Amino acid sequence: MEPVPLSASYTEMTEILLPNDTNNLGRALGGAVLNWMDICGAVAAMRFASNQVVTASMDHVDFISPIEQGEVVVVEAYVFATGRTSLDVKVDVHAENPRSESPDRATTSSFFTFVALDEDGRPTPVPEVACETAEEESMREEAAAERRAQLEQVVDRLEEG
C-alpha cells in the first residue's frame, strides 16, 4: 500500500455559534464543540484512508477560551500517524469574531484515534503518512510531540492522585 500525503487528509470546517449550541451564558456548549471535532476528525480520517472510519478514542480536552454566540468556529484536522488499521488525527478549534479585526484565538485541541473499516464493517489496513513538504513534516512532528506531552501530563496526574 502506497503512503498517502498528510495534505490529503487536511480538513477544515466552519460553524457559526448559534443559540441552540450555547449555554445560559451565550457560550459554546462543550458537547457541541466535541461533536464538531469528532465530525471534522472523521472526515480527515476518511479522506486519508479512503474508507469508512469509526471513532476509537479521544484524548484529554481542555477548553482554554470560550466561544461566544455569533462567533465563527473553525475546526481543523489532519492525520499525523497511522497504525495497521488506526489513524491518529490532530484536531484544533479556533474562534473568530467576524465583526472585528481581532485575530482568531485557539479555543481547544485534542487527538482522536479512528479505525478504518472495510465494506463488511471489519478493521482494514491503512496507508502510512507521507510528508511531501517541510511544513507537513513539521506539522507531523509537532502533533506527535504535543500528544506525547499531553499523555505524560495525564500519567503524572494519575500518579499524584
UniProtKB/TrEMBL annotation:
GO molecular function: fatty acyl-CoA hydrolase activity
Keyword Hydrolase carried by entry: yes
Domain HotDog ACOT-type intervals: 7-120
Coiled coil: none
PROSITE patterns associated with the record: HOTDOG_ACOT
EC number of the protein: 3.1.2.20
Protein name (database record): Acyl-CoA thioesterase
Keyword set, alphabetical order: Hydrolase
CDD domains attached to this UniProt entry: BFIT_BACH (cd03442)
Pfam families in the record: 4HBT (PF03061)
Ranges that cross the membrane: none
